[in-house]
Amino acid sequence: GFPQIRKNPLVQMNTTLNRFNAVFAYALSVLAALTLLCFLSTVFKDRSIEDIKLGSSPDITVNAVHQMGMKNDLVTLTLDINANFSSLFDWNTKELFVYLYANYTSKRNVVNQVVLWDKIILRGEKADLKFQAISPKYQFIDDGYGMRGNRDVSLILEWNIIPHAGLMPKFSGGRKRLVLPK
Asked: What Cα–Cα distance (Å) separates residue 28 from each residue in 17, 31, 124, 164, 179?
């Protein structure tokens, strides 16, 4: 007959490690496909908020401050924020990052953006924000004298949705124009 082929004892085709590797690779492929399906189920969902109210105190002051050897304008105001983000939470939403910033132009810079307040809302936390007359979390300082009498200041509320799987989109909602005193 046929000659006998001797098997090498060090080479085995179906070891436990090989079988474990095949099962693990298949499981990862299935999980990747499920993650893609989860992402696709929420990617086209409308994430806008209709009823956002922003306000600020009528007594806004602009003072000169010395910071690092320079004179700058410091704006003092209080904020009103009223927005309900509850509808943004679904099974793919891990948390929201909500922030309010001031956008303005000055003689020194065409675009200025200063974050005044932010909040992280985790799943299960109260997402209906109702803040009245709160102080900004961060100082509203201009790098020069661009704030006195500035009529082009807008407060803008934006939020990022941090999902379990997928893109991290940014949305903009409320906007309030301010006129600063001289």
From this structure: 16, 5, 29, 17, 56
Q: In what order do the strands lie in the sheet with 112-122?
A: 112-122, 93-104, 153-163, 170-178
Tens of each residue's pLDDT in the chain, 182 residues: 677 777 766 666 678 888 899 999 999 999 999 988 888 888 788 777 777 888 887 677 777 776 667 778 888 899 999 999 999 998 889 999 999 999 998 888 889 999 999 999 999 999 999 999 999 999 988 887 778 888 889 999 999 999 988 888 888 888 888 888 88
> pTM for the full model?
0.79
| Helix extents (H) in the chain | 16-42
CA distance 79 to 57: 7
Contacts of 101 (CB under 8 A, 6+ apart): 113, 114, 115, 116, 155, 156, 158
